[in-house]
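Practice problem: predict the structure.
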Amino acid sequence: MALPRLVFRVHAVQRMFERDIDETDVREVLETGETIEAYPEDTPYPSRLVLGWRGNRPLHGVVADNTEAQETIVITAYEPDASQWDTGFERRRRP
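Answer:
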């Protein structure tokens, strides 16, 4: 599936650098991953949490979809903490 144009927010670039995640990682996650949470009421655009894998490394990407401009805005990307997510990193652990 071809992605719309990706726009990386400054926050995303800073966090990606800190977390050793690059643009290729994010693109792969978005191309092959699965939306595990959707936030349709977010503004100014609906957003979602995507889970993907880079080898054995799970990655989450938070993106907003600006369909009018045909772009996906990368808000942040991170490696999920196993203590906060169930096995598979698809659901948050209950307190």
